[in-house]
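Practice problem 4.
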């Protein structure tokens, strides 16, 4: 326990150094590195405090709380990108979060859960529902890109594309709320069942809660609700500050290391910001023989980003009178679509093995390398207007 407390103190110093480096305007590389490293412990503290503040009997409220503050990196990076008028960073981080979840984390979960087993089995009906919903969501998100590619600028004015994006965002939020009713109310038994779990993982006729998959394998001292609320407020404010410095120093760091901003935003920011969450899903799915819960956690994380975080950022730009729409270029839209198709195909039959996990990891490596060698694309025109 003493060693754990020393680690907590050390991790608390990283955000402090990040604040100092940004406030004193140190070299862009130092500011970027210190603040992006700060996102991992801050994200861990936010998730832990959210778990402490969950209200018994208010599952929908708890889910919305986890969907917003549980995706701190994507939400706060996007908000800061809107403020600093760098929308391409917001778009790249959302894309990177989706790719890392669908390919890297899901692949790691399947690989580490099945490398010593002939076959992994999970609920086919449940994964079909979730993957179908994901496909619909991505089609809705891709509509601005499709409209731009297959019609001329005169045929579809920019203000109409913006209006379509805002309406789509409202529909996605409404769809998410309906999905929560479907998941937590009318079809709760479907999401609670884990028929392929080992007997020792079943408690009282019900499966181990999905949230337990996200618990890190380290000792954690108990914190009350008052302290949890304080930690949540402090960690969220700190994360907002750190993400501000990450966004402001990204271009300078990109110039120093000689790589494009899209690669950094697609890979480094989601990986460091969600490192603890990704690690927990992979390790706990293996240690508890609960690959199905790991798959659920991955798909739910993607749905939260695409059905709540992305629409909220569009609506935030609307509220701030900063016209914002998420239009991916053809390369980004293609990688997004292929990732969803590959993931859906591999889990559609309710069976998998470690090699399919390696295929997902390999696909992620190839896509990220493509972003690395790809020339810096022109800034995507997301803000429409003066």
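Answer key:
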């Amino acid at each position: 326990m003493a060693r754990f407390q020393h680690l907590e103190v050390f991790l608390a110093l990283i955000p402090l150094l990040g604040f100092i480096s940004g406030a004193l305007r140190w070299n862009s590389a130092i500011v970027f590195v210190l603040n992006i490293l700060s996102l991992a412990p801050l994200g861990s503290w936010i998730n832990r405090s959210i778990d402490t503040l969950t209200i018994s009997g208010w599952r929908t409220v708890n889910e919305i709380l986890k969907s917003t503050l549980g995706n701190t990196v994507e939400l706060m990076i996007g908000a800061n990108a809107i403020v600093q008028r760098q929308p391409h960073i917001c778009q790249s981080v959302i894309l990177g979060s989706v790719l890392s979840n669908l390919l890297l984390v899901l692949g790691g979960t399947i690989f580490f859960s099945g490398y010593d087993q002939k076959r992994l089995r999970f609920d086919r009906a449940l994964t079909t529902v979730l993957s179908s919903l994901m496909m619909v969501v991505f089609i809705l998100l891709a509509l601005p890109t499709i409209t731009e590619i297959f019609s001329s600028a005169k045929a579809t004015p920019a203000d109409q594309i913006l209006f379509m994006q805002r309406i789509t965002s409202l529909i996605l939020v409404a769809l998410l709320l309906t999905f929560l009713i479907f998941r937590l109310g009318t079809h709760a038994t479907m999401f609670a069942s884990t028929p392929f779990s080992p007997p020792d993982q079943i408690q009282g006729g019900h499966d181990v809660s999905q949230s337990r998959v996200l618990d890190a394998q380290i000792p954690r001292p108990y914190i009350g609700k008052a302290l949890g609320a304080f930690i949540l407020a402090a960690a969220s404010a700190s994360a907002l500050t750190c993400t501000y410095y990450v966004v402001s120093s990204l271009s300078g760091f990109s110039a120093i290391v000689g790589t494009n901003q899209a690669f950094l935003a697609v890979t480094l920011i989601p990986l460091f910001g969600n490192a603890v969450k990704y690690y927990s899903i992979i390790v706990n799915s293996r240690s508890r023989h609960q690959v199905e819960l790991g798959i659920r956690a991955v798909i739910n994380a993607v749905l939260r980003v695409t059905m709540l975080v992305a629409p909220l950022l569009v609506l935030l730009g609307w509220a701030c009178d900063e016209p914002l729409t998420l239009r991916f270029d053809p390369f980004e839209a293609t990688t997004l679509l292929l990732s969803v198709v590959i993931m859906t195909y591999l889990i559609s039959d309710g069976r998998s093995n470690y090699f399919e996990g390696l295929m997902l990891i390999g696909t992620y490596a190839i896509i990220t390398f493509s972003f690395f060698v790809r020339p810096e694309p022109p800034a995507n025109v997301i803000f429409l207007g003066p």
